[in-house]
Specification:
- Helix content is 34%, strand content 20%.
- By secondary structure, it is of the alpha/beta class.
- It folds into two domains: 78 residues, GMP Synthetase, Chain A, domain 3; 250 residues, P-loop containing nucleotide triphosphate hydrolases (Rossmann fold, 3-Layer(aba) Sandwich), CATH 3.40.50.300.
- Helix 5 crosses helix 13 and helix 7 packs parallel to helix 8.
- In the N-terminal section; belongs to the MIP18 family.
């Protein structure tokens, strides 16, 4: 048995008809389909106006999907839900209402509004994901310094914070104002020579993003498609930790040119990094390499080097699974302090050991980006 394809799912849904003879896909679009713990989860993006018409059709939709050829022991259940949320903010100004004040959890129009015209990211050369199999390995810090470092290499760079539940990009880049709107599209903010966008720019940083999977996927889709990125050589996407809906949504909506997996040296972290590499390979996304973060600690007083988490584990893992090793990033207080201050260490202290390590990473990745966009 193989997992149902997007085409098979859409064909099954077209068999589900409302009393007026229209199909469920005449009023909604397939937003995402994921197989998790034996259940096929399908999210349909629609408008608030159409939701009352479609709600009674969901049991029929689930029955149609259960009847797909090949549905068997691997898929024990089917769940179909609608994502329909409030309208987008008005054009010509900052987001209005509770979301703009930090009191709401849905600052974007997370539902569908009809088919999007043209490519999702016109003008963007390549999209690279920075990912990790688990949290706490310094993925976001690596993504920020890589993006700024790529800008220092002369590339036109955008940085998207796709960690919907824990957006940290605004604090790391020193950004404190919401994006402006132009003709209904958000304009990314400029910081340290790059363009940046995060849902953290639209909500109070103290708010907890208590969102279900389809809402996360809808928000991610809009951060990609409803932002006026302009002409970029590369868009760096700071992925949420793990191997879940956000990664699948990105692979479905855009063609990722590659992924960089961040890990620390110890065996437990490397187990999760291996899962991240496997996930991208299953989605046919090239793995550009593995970065070993917190690779070693240098005492600021005596210069003595200590391998707090071991050393060389990521290099050995990269060799074992056949992907490039992109370099080592030391564990230094300067990296933490610069992130808290909103000034990436790659530009705040470019000649420091941390700054040099990130510059070396940016040069390596930059060469790959130039080769891909040429």
């Amino acid at each position: 048995m193989t997992d149902p394809t997007r085409m098979q799912i859409e064909q099954a849904l077209r068999q589900v008809r409302a009393p007026d003879g229209t199909t469920i896909l005449d009023h909604a679009a397939l937003d995402a389909a994921t197989l998790r713990d034996g259940t096929l989860h399908v999210a349909l993006a629609t408008s608030r106006a159409a939701a009352p018409l479609l709600e009674p059709l969901l049991p029929q939709a689930e029955a149609a999907l259960r009847a797909l050829p090949g549905i068997g022991p691997g898929i024990s259940a089917v769940s179909v839900i609608l994502t329909a949320h409030r309208a987008a903010p008005p054009a010509g100004g900052a987001p209005q209402g509770a979301a703009a004040q930090g009191g709401g959890h849905r600052p974007l129009n997370l539902g569908g509004g009809g088919a999007r015209q043209g490519p999702l990211l016109p003008g963007v050369g390549v999209v690279i994901a920075v990912a990790s199999g688990k949290g706490g390995v310094g993925k976001s810090t690596t993504a920020v310094n890589l993006a700024v470092g790529l800008g220092m290499e002369g590339l036109r760079v955008g940085l998207l914070d796709a960690d919907i539940h824990g957006p940290s990009l605004p604090r790391m880049l020193g950004l404190r104002r919401p994006p402006e709107l132009h003709e209904g599209r958000m304009l990314p903010l400029d910081a340290w020579g790059i363009k940046a966008m995060s849902i953290g720019l639209l909500v109070d940083e103290r708010q907890a993003m208590i969102w279900r999977g389809p809402m996360v996927m809808g928000a991610l889709g809009q951060l990609l498609g409803d932002v006026e990125w302009g002409a970029l050589d590369v868009l760096v996407v700071d992925m949420p930790p793990g191997t879940g809906d956000a990664q699948l949504t990105l692979a479905q909506k855009i063609a990722l040119a590659g992924a960089i997996v961040v890990s620390t040296p110890q065996d437990i972290a490397l187990l999760d990094a291996r899962r991240g590499v496997t996930m991208f390979r299953k989605m046919d996304v090239p793995v550009l390499g593995i970065v070993e973060n917190m690779s070693y600690f240098c005492c600021p007083n005596c210069g003595h080097r200590t391998d707090l988490f071991g050393h060389g584990g990521a290099r050995a893992e990269a060799e074992a699974i056949g992907v490039p090793f992109l370099g080592e990033i030391p564990l230094l207080a300067d990296i933490r302090a610069s992130a808290d201050a909103g000034a990436p260490v790659v530009t705040a202290a470019p000649d420091s050991p941390a700054g040099q390590a990130y510059r070396a990473l940016a040069r390596t990745v930059g060469a790959t980006v130039r080769r891909l966009v040429s």
